[in-house]
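Fold it.
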Amino acid sequence: MKSIKVGLLGIGTVGSGTFNVLKRNQQEIAARAGRAIEITMVADLDVERAKQLTSGEVTVVNDAKLVVNNPDIDIVIELIGGYGIAKDLVLQAIANGKHVVTANKALIAMHGNEIFKAAQEKGVIVAFEAAVAGGIPIIKALREGLTANSIQWIAGIINGTTNFILSEMRDKGLDFDVVLKEAQRLGYAEADPTFDIEGVDAAHKLTIMASIAFGIPVQFAKAHVEGITKLQATDIRYAEQLGYRIKLLGITKRTAGGIELRVHPTLIPSARLIANVEGAMNAVLVRGDAVGDTLYYGKGAGAEPTASAVIADLVDITRLATADPEHRVPHLAFQPNAMADTPILPMAEITTSYYLRMHVADQSGVLADVTRILADSSISIDAMLQKEPAAGETQTDIIMLTHQTQEKNVEAAIAKIEALATVVGTVTKIRLEELG
């Protein structure tokens, strides 16, 4: 059969990985896809470097529009990133009747609704497995493997940079700023790590998974996004003493009132498998009503792990391209006319447990004042640590774990606790999930 011609936009880390894996495993990939798949055209601003990476085997141009407008190209792989020119190129490729593969989580999280609508109208496929968790096939698992289930919740470590930083902070007892510099030196963190450490990257990925899990439009703007920049080694140490580890989790849940969509540091019991995911690895825990809990673990980034997902999408499109569009797997798992309008819950209305740390004067009555305020806000205490002050010190830490309560109750209680003359500074609050 006639081979599938692919145009590649951007041949950086993932692009070069995709080119190399596709070339190395071409016979096996063709045997699985039913025909050969070959990259025949590459667009990159650095033409000479692109020619070196492809050994002069393909046409290299510096204008991506030449690729998306080439009538000989069947599938366009978008690896430029961002949601400016990348969005324009993807929509142009769709308008030209070309299928699209992208690893661009920001693009799908911000503009997925518009892109999928255009693709449906044109009868083409937009595949994005590589946009979430790199080499872990979580999109296919949610969209196809778990299609019989009503998904209850998803909790994921979906950013390798922050997981590496938290692992190092726990193992070495170092503060955030110190570990971030080391992560940058080792190449785990970008020179500008803002999207990673502030939770934005994880929120992009979570937004996509929530849409597939619950049949709702992508709604990144409604996600609660909180990073790890304010975490202290002290809290990681106290969490360990209480039997927990702190991870940056993306959490989305189906509740009676709506969908929770939140990214923030979270205490997880140390015995949970996901709590023991260390370094730059990713893991996604999914609970379905029929299957129970399933865990997906692997490399969430890197040239070849991400290329694995990109090429899997190429194979899927090659298999499905000739199928009637109405009988293909929908982009967001649910048929477009069956998408739900379930609201996203504001953080004030989510219910979970909490870790609270307060620095207080070492004097009688302090604990009684704090517990009274919590009781008045309908918050009960599950566990507590009260540290002895160091020699010569007149202040100490009190650490409490609460039972489940609404966020608005905790916020109201914290405001009252911080107003006490015996409480020094602000109260540290970290959410807690049992995930069991």
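The longest strand covers residues 244-254.
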